[in-house]
Amino acid sequence: MNPWILTRSAVVLATTVALSLTAPCLAAGDEAGPINLARMTQGYTYYNRPGATREQHDADVRACALAAGQMHSVNELIAAAPSSTIRASIFADPNDRNLAAASLENCMVVRGWQVVLLPEAEGKQLTQLPAAQIGETIGPWIGAAEPHGQVVRRWNNDAIRGSTVRYDRAPPRTKRGQLSLIAGAPDLQELPTSPARMPPSPWINPRWPRKTLAPTDLAGLRSDAAVVMVQVKGIGAQGGLGVAFNRIGADAETMPSITDHAPDMVFAGTGWLYAHREGNMFVFAVPAGRWRLYGLGAAPTLNLCLGSPSFEVKAGEVVYAGAYDLDAAELGPDLDLAPAKAWLGAQGRPLREASYVNGSLGPCGDNSIYALEIKGAPFEPGYAWGSRASTAPAP
């Protein structure tokens, strides 16, 4: 289970606000409504990528199924907290499987696969066959230039769009609808989820401030600290309560705080009652290193483990990570330095905007997974998902 899950006050606040106010929305791929990243496409579907082989298909399905198996409902994660006395909801397990089904689909879309919807009668008939025969039937369609059925989803950088539904409290799923999963990983077709675990956070040296800073705090910071500034707008039930960043370790799964006891996660967000229309500025003292956009929201969280923008900070720097508008047509970031300069006032500290690079990977977990790209930013060497794998024409 992902050790970087947002806990404590963020979970409690988000649970009482976001879960109670988030309205049910239409499923991903439903042309009558927006893309919903927390719901699988309803109906009978398989995955297609022109030119792909059955072996590539099955390998990606298995990898995505294993990643999706780490998803858990907010209720389940709260119940798994070391200090929690809350019992898991009786609906947690079905919700976990439903969230896993959506994340499997998201993962395949990020890897460049299209979601193809079959007619209801044809799909239902297919599910009556053994897994091997389902595989034989859809096999020729998997790499076809013109897939059999209707393409209803492909990579479109949906997480950055304000019209996208990023969170869902009780998503549905079609139990036998994911034909690629039945054919490609029949032993995982029930999408078994790993036990929800929320281990205690690593010990953080108290010399590192844990809360957002005030301008007067800058003079007393330790010499090896950098300052990261983030403005968040549009906080609410629809867009979410904020954005989170994590420090990248030796690899995507390593928590650097385990060895250096310095912060490796910051959350720029608050409850909607404390949100300002002009935006809230969050300022953090952080260790030098590379920081990536970890996820959107907090309980529920859309985890961007499959690819997200990152930037580097050095000791002594003040870096503006931009303004993220959770309710805008596009999330951002807006890197205009004016809000950061206004916050700094007469502090006289040198300031620069973050230099983002797309394609950083992180640990998967939380409530759903996807990727996000900043338009115009370069990519990490070797990153081959998202727009780099998509079959869609460039926008």
Tell me what the structure shows.
The chain has 395 residues and is α+β, with helices and mostly antiparallel strands. It folds into 2 domains: 9-188, no CATH class; 215-374, no CATH class. Helix content is 23%, strand content 19%. It is built from 9 helices and 14 strands. The protein has helices spanning 9-21, 54-68, 74-80, 92-110, 120-126, 131-142, 179-184, 257-260, 338-344, and strands at residues 44-48, 114-118, 150-153, 225-233, 242-247, 265-269, 280-287, 289-297, 301-303, 308-313, 318-325, 352-353, 357-360, 368-369. Strands 5, 6, 8, 9, 10, 13 and 14 form a 7-stranded mixed β-sheet that branches. The longest helix is centred in the N-terminal third of the chain and has 19 residues, at 92-110. It starts with 8 loop residues before the first helix and ends in a 26-residue tail after the last strand. Residues 1-27 have low confidence and may be disordered.
